């Protein structure tokens, strides 16, 4: 009995992690093999023979959960530790991050979503950070010439003009050009709207007689100022798109941009009004002038976030459209047969295709009222259609709002942080090296912690 008691006490081991001592049994540490703590020997450099303990300069809070994992077999995530730090600590101790308990997994995995969101915001450039000269040269492929100091006059002029038009936050001049572009965009849309109100569609001012104008009640000629203002706006757009096309780092990328395509079509629609007879297709092309408002996304971080929110919520929106189409077809068929169950001389649903529009406006809670059920079965189906539409549309809305809130909150947080931060970790001083060596244990632990040594800069592991 006494011998067993002595063996039990000799099996105890003391671990000093970050200044906090932990005591446990070697048998407990051997429950999880092939880990750092399962192969503790006195030959390790971490062993202090004077204090009879193993010292590790690691995070003590995370190690408490690591040791608890050896004891109970359940790995929990400490709420006061950042996710990447927790992963680094588990990697150092040789544990798998996938062993985190389900109750802590949602909290632990938040940092991965955060890192993905920050990577997206870096691509969107919603903060409008100013590019350095080296970064500009890298964009144009002039990096070697820049470092060699042999940039030509055209290369310098090209990059400067590109910065003025495509990087509105780079300088005061670029901000002024951006403000002028926004002003002309708004004025162009205003002129387009006023012109459509003032003149009858498909008739030019020059071809109208005074008698025709007097017969067009409710339509008057627009003020002459709008005519000159529209020409001034399109002159600016023409100069802008030509210059941006000439100095663009990549013509292919410039042509593939949806905003540039809209701007080009809108500018072309203005000149086609004077070079061709008016027709329906040219009038449809002039709608691109209103779409010029999407140019404001280059100057508004909020619009960039809103557009990317819809991209990030594409799955939810696709699911919404799918269930909406399913409900439209279902209730259009039901209302068609429900209105025929009773005598109904004023039946508006004489076919299923005519009921599709009614189902759409009912499920979207618009309700034009041009088609309504007249029988009790039809009214019952109409009520179910309205309830189903409310539930179908309301389900994905919180997801979209959550995505927008996530992107916007991260943008606000990033705007308050310093633009550049140093990420250099100090090298931890070495512990005293005692004359105990074990080549087998050293090779095992060195291979186990090679990644951790490089990522943290600690050179005193084993």
Automatic annotation (TrEMBL):
GO terms for cellular component: axon terminus; dendrite membrane; neuronal cell body membrane; postsynaptic membrane; presynaptic membrane; voltage-gated potassium channel complex. The chain crosses the membrane at residues 317-338, 380-408. One of its GO terms (biological process) is action potential. One of its GO terms (molecular function) is delayed rectifier potassium channel activity. It holds the Pfam family Ion_trans. It comes from the Eukaryota. It is a multi-pass membrane protein. Its main location: membrane. Coiled coil: none annotated. It is found in: Membrane. Residues 11-111 form the BTB domain. Keywords: Ion channel, Ion transport, Membrane, Potassium, Potassium channel, Potassium transport, Transmembrane, Transmembrane helix, Transport, Voltage-gated channel. PANTHER family: SHAW-LIKE, ISOFORM C, VOLTAGE-GATED POTASSIUM CHANNEL. Belongs to the potassium channel family. C (Shaw) (TC 1.A.1.2) subfamily. Shaw sub-subfamily. This is Potassium voltage-gated channel protein Shaw-like.
